[in-house]
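From the methods appendix. Each design record in this collection lists the tokenized structure first, followed by the designed amino acid sequence. Records were kept in a plain field format so they could be parsed without special tools. The example shown here is representative of the layout used throughout.

RECORD:
FOLD TOKENS (216 positions):
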């Protein structure tokens, strides 16, 4: 198979997974709100129409130019978010009944994060890296929740998504720190360091769930 054909297959698979996750989330959310089958199906179609295909393409198909370190972290985060969306959609169908509404919410947010992280694949370091780190930390936090409460149907994939997202976040934060250099003064540098500290705190809180998921 040629490189072009491989890229098309990867793009098609990414779009297929994103459409399934969006449709399931839209349909089940509409059903919970009391819509009939036709109304819920219309909501599912609207969710699929709202997907950012450009961001999905950027995440699924590598650029011809060599990836930057920040772009590699973004792609890893996008992969983690897509895996989380799939696991959460599964938990929304087969997970513990009380957790299913939350699983649907996680699936929807994970699909949004996958799209935004895919768009970040060509980002440079600096402020963009800190935003990337924060988004990856959001993926890790939700993956930790799913690994803990989503049941057997989602635990393993959620734990993997957590590890991927945490690694991508740490990479992005390190790039952000490197861009700050030795600058210690200035409100911008202090604000950036506070943001890095808060993001790493989120990651530390999420990591125990990775160990639990891996042991399961």
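DESIGN:
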């Amino acid at each position: 198979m040629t490189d072009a054909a491989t890229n098309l297959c990867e793009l098609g698979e990414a779009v297929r997974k994103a459409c399934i996750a969006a449709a399931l989330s839209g349909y089940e959310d509409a059903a919970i709100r009391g819509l009939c089958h036709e109304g819920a199906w219309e909501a599912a179609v609207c969710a699929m129409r709202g997907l950012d295909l450009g961001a999905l393409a950027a995440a699924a198909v590598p650029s011809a130019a060599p990836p930057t370190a920040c772009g590699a972290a973004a792609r890893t985060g996008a992969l983690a978010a897509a895996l989380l969306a799939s696991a959460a959609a599964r938990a929304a169908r087969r997970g513990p009944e009380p957790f299913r509404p939350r699983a649907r919410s996680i699936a929807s947010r994970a699909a949004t994060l996958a799209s935004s992280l895919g768009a970040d694949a060509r980002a440079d370091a600096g402020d963009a890296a800190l935003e990337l780190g924060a988004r990856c930390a959001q993926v890790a936090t939700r993956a930790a929740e799913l690994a803990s409460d989503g049941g057997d149907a989602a635990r393993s994939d959620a734990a993997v998504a957590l590890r991927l997202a945490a690694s991508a976040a740490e990479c992005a934060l390190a790039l952000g720190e490197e861009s700050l250099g030795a600058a210690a003064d200035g409100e911008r540098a202090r604000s950036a360091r506070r943001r890095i500290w808060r993001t790493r705190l989120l990651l530390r809180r999420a990591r125990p769930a990775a160990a639990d998921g891996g042991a399961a």
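APPENDIX NOTE: Confidence is low (pLDDT under 50) at residues 210-216.
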